[in-house]
Protein: 3-oxoadipate enol-lactonase
Organism: Intrasporangium oryzae NRRL B-24470
Amino acid sequence: MINLTLTVLRHGSADGDLLIVGPSLGTAVTPLWDGCAALLDGDVTVVGWDLPGHGRSPAHDEAFSIPDLASAVVTATRPVREEHRGRTFVAGVSLGGTVALEVALGHAAETGLDAAAVICSGAHIGSPRDWHERAELVRRAGAPVMVEPSARRWFAPGFLERDPATGTALLTSLQHADSRSYARCCEALAAFDVRDRLGTVGCRILAVAGEADNVTPVALAAEVASGTGGEAVTIPGAAHLAPAERPLEVARVLSRFLGPGPRLTGGRIDGTPPARPIWRPDMTDDPTRSATLADGFEVRRAVLGTEHVDAAEARTTDFTAAFQSLITRYAWGEIWTRPGLDRRTRSVITLTALVARGHWEELALHVRAALRNGLRREEIEEVLLQTAIYLGVPSANHAFAIAQQEIDRSHQESQP
């Protein structure tokens, strides 16, 4: 039997809602979720659980599966669920996200589950071989061997410098994790693949991806949302531990998905202003245009990447500022935000148009954007094969070369 220890991260009333949150492999739930829990809207109690041998949970060196962990979470939280008269939600990051998804698949009716948030996670993560190799490494060398590579994978560039206290707390929880329990968690992830069960989910699903997450990229969130009929959102400036890296943004997403108020639309966070606007206040006094510009920046960052948009911002001059405002408002604020097509479909259309016009530099940029929007390598291949028929083989040949280069680069960046 797996024994999990619970921690109350936020106290609400018995009439309020209950949010049960889980951690990522190698982390304790408190440093990962504490800041985000405090920023949630409304009357909500937040209870976190720690993985076996992590945080406050005891070690466990017998084989277990993700469904076993889901059952353990359901058992451990039964008393607190019985105390609350409001709605029940689950959320989890990475491995914790697989557990949240498994609870939604197998225990929604039993728990009265209203919704689940699958954060920086997926219906499968990585390859079984890689997980088994990591399990053996940690058994031999101990969990501290994972601190240095995890520091690279977990956080977006600049986070450790911006918030060293949170980063240190998370890496310290990895340093102190029980090695045998960590290895068992790896083996559970190796066996986890519920892609063929997504259509049987028993509640609403929100899939949240970190824009800079190379461990569980945006495509995995898109896959979960598509398979469950759920919603997908990308958090700009976050990598693999979004609730710790971007607590306010994740709290806004969760509050709007789980509670009343504006629903998420088009994969963006309604009403969230961009972190670094490049327009000047005197460029427009029209609040509608300003709001459209803000929406445009948000979507532009989510699709093209924060690094690219920051670079474009840095190059903006008085001579080019009006043009930057124009494309951000109309291309990104008016068209890419429309609900009639999802971002995957818009990427397909954009790739085709760029091949047709021979805009090769833009094509490279939008191949990366398509991957970020959830298109798989095989789907990009099909798009380019279609262009060979209708736009000509020479153009498609050049497009394939560019796409291959960008796909390879994306793959290299995702490696530890």
